[in-house]
Amino acid sequence: MCLEIEAKDDTVGWLVSQSHDFGLTTSVPTKLALAHLPLEQGRVFCVVPQSHRLAAKPEITPKDLNGACFVSYIAGSRFWHDIDQVFEAAGVARELRFETRTSDVICQLVARGIVVSVVATSLAAGDIPGCVAVPFKVQLDTQAVLIWTKNRTLSAPAKDFLEMVRGDGASPGG
Questions:
Q1: Which fold, 8-41+142-166?
Q2: pLDDT for the residue 174
Q3: Which terminal residue of the chain has fewer beta carbons within 10 Å of its beta carbon, N or C?
Q4: Alpha carbon distance 15, 148 (integer Å)
Q5: Cα 31 from Cα 23, distance rounded (Å)
Q6: What is the pTM of this model?
Q7: How do the domains of the chain map onto residue ranges?
Q8: Which helix (H) or strand (E) segment is 158 a member of?
Q9: Over residues 45-54, mean pLDDT
Q10: Averaged pLDDT, 76-94
């Protein structure tokens, strides 16, 4: 199984052209030819280096990050836009150092001690030494949605994967 990180339009194109079995997006698809399964809906977290002054706080606000060196999702992504609006509404200026597509890369950069960020899941920081996820005090609708085309039969490995994600099977093939 292969996991590609691309823009939503590319992901939908790959599914429609039948070159991929599944896609992962942040919204329920509007195209009737796509099936979907919501995977996670949750809180937003600020990720900071373990030694950062904010790491021990029970919650972080946008104002806590005023002037911070920041890594963000790539410009134009939905989450980038939502986070940008949060900081703009709070009158908070950040120093944007890097942009990337994935939470994993964001957390890797944070763990190096040079930036902070906001991500849509605490799981991203869980396995990265030196990176701490602290609840971020904002109301944002975040979700992860698995999508696939209804226009073709899934392969056996794809069916096993879907069963595992749904919780229908203990393990692939089982």
A1: D-Maltodextrin-Binding Protein; domain 2 (3.40.190)
A2: 37
A3: C
A4: 6
A5: 14
A6: 0.69
A7: 8-41+142-166, 45-135
A8: helix 156-166
A9: 94
A10: 88
